[in-house]
Design goal:
This protein has about 500 residues and is α/β, with parallel strands linked by helices. The protein is built from 14 helices and 19 strands. The radius of gyration is 25 Å and the shape is elongated.
Length: about 500
């Protein structure tokens, strides 16, 4: 597929990098660099337009991302430098079928976006030159030769109990059945290896798998009644509280203060409108070709992580099953087996691939402490590619994110100011940093100097298939951008 002839854009900064790109997937015609693709296998059938290189040797080279295979992408930068904007750029490129200049996709890919600031609902809207709030964006799009657009297939989910602001939005609830002992630890903000964490995990095991025994005694200590409580998978919060309060073993093994603290906090959780049945259905939230947005802004950090973790676990398991069935289908020859496998794949109603976009990764997967989403995200990074799963994480605090999610094949770095965050971002670069950089004649070969002087929308971008990192500018959003700081006067 021939790539579009995109408009030439002037950049103010004079950026000169001596290092050539010794390895990079350049399209055979036009001025195009494709990230995420080996140089010997150029294919333009599934590309998303990211922006333009700002370096003089590769000035105005159009930079694309190959989305035909799974990726793990990491976006970092200070608040207001463009991280959420980048998530929107990716969501637009992935979620539009035949997106004109911004992609080469014949069919839209499936995207699930965890929106911690509740700002991506604007993907549904096209910027309007007649509106004052959109005029500057439309002018910027014109400068780049891009057309204002809106995503058609967008669905928005809001937590139950939250006032619906957007027409057509749907409520979601969490079913306790989808939670395990570590999830409850994450919600209550306790370490699974602490006494409180042990109590929660043991109670979960008793309620769902082992069963437990309630012993009622007289004031003198004489056993009056023994009751065996059978395990039940379809449990709720009340079952956990009952077990913790009355199970003989728990009451003999744990301090009374620990038991009271846990039951009190679980009792408070019973009143959360977010817990209920039937819970989140994958068939409803993972629709092929749709961008599905979960609004999380008004939830606590613990609850944000819980929602994210529960959904990611469900996706990881279901997509893994789908991949196993697909592999079996590619091998079996018996016609009856083929029919059965095809039916099972249809019943799952899942796409071949899925993109998960997460803002505020430091909340979801912190370097210190336990959250309900930390373990699922780490597992997602380690083994998600095999199931056709891609992950994009954004954070303003790279030093606060667990190092076990370092296995990224594309890193996007915006302006950062602290040595701690810059060093953490450097550790995530999947390609070397250029050795000789000058901006306006000033030496910027020290990565710390360069990253501190990046402008809004300017990035250092590194991918595992290109010989070094490049300095580029992300393209403008074609749909309405819901981020940015409001004017106060």
């Amino acid at each position: 597929m021939a790539l579009p002839q995109l408009r030439y854009v002037e950049f103010v900064k004079d950026i000169r990098v001596s290092d050539t790109l010794e390895r990079g997937a350049f399209a055979p015609t036009g001025n195009h660099l494709i990230l995420g693709q080996k140089e010997e296998t150029i294919n333009t059938d599934a590309l998303v337009y990211l922006g333009k290189c700002m370096e003089k040797n590769y000035y105005n080279t159009n930079v694309w991302l190959d989305v035909s295979r799974p990726h793990v992408i990491y976006i970092v930068g200070k608040r207001g430098e463009g991280k959420s904007y980048d998530l929107g750029v990716l969501a637009e490129g992935l979620g539009m079928a035949g997106g004109g200049e911004i992609n080469t996709l014949k069919t839209a890919q499936t995207v699930l976006l965890f929106d911690t600031q509740s700002q991506f609902w604007t993907l549904k809207y096209q910027p309007n030159r007649e509106k004052d709030i959109d005029r500057q964006q439309v002018e910027y799009l014109t400068k780049w030769g891009l057309q204002a657009r809106a995503l058609k297939n967008v669905q928005i989910f809001i937590p139950k109990g939250e006032e619906a602001i957007f027409t057509g939005s749907k409520e979601y609830v969490l079913n306790p059945v989808d939670m395990d002992g570590e999830d409850w630890c994450g919600l209550l903000g306790v370490d699974p290896f602490s006494p409180t964490g042990h109590l929660l995990i043991e109670a979960y095991g008793k309620v769902t798998t082992d069963g437990y025994k309630i012993v009622k005694k007289s004031p003198e200590g004489r056993i009056i009644k023994e009751e065996k409580v059978e395990p039940r998978e379809d449990y709720d919060i009340h079952d956990l509280i009952k077990c913790i309060r009355h199970d003989e073993e728990i009451n003999s093994d744990y301090q009374d203060t620990t038991i009271k603290a846990v039951t009190w906090r679980l009792g408070a959780a019973q009143n959360y409108p977010l817990f209920g049945k039937p819970g989140i259905s994958l068939s409803e939230i993972v629709k092929e070709g749709y961008v599905t947005i979960f609004l999380l802004r008004n939830l606590s950090d613990e609850m944000k992580a819980l929602v994210t973790g529960v959904i990611i676990k469900k996706i990881f398991k279901a997509m893994g099953i789908r991949r196993q069935l697909q592999r079996a289908l590619e091998r079996v020859e018996d016609k009856k087996e083929v029919v059965v496998l095809e039916r099972r794949i249809r019943e799952l109603a899942l796409p071949v691939g899925l993109w998960v976009l997460i803002d505020e990764a430091h909340v979801m997967c912190p370097s210190d402490g336990h959250t309900a989403s930390k373990k699922p995200i780490i597992e997602f990074v380690r083994r998600g590619r095999d199931a056709g799963l891609s992950l994009v994480m954004a954070t303003q605090q790279p030093s606060a994110v667990d190092s076990r999610v370092l296995q990224t094949d594309l890193a996007i770095i915006h302006r950062l100011t602290t040595d701690e965050d810059i060093n953490a971002a450097r550790a995530r670069l999947p390609a070397p940093f250029p050795s000789d950089i000058k901006i306006g004649g000033r030496d910027m070969s020290d990565m710390k100097d360069l990253i501190r002087h990046l402008g809004v929308g300017e990035i250092v971008c590194a991918d595992a298939e290109t010989s070094r990192a490049i300095i580029m500018r992300m393209r403008p959003r074609v749909s309405v951008h819901g981020g940015g700081e409001p004017r106060t006067v």
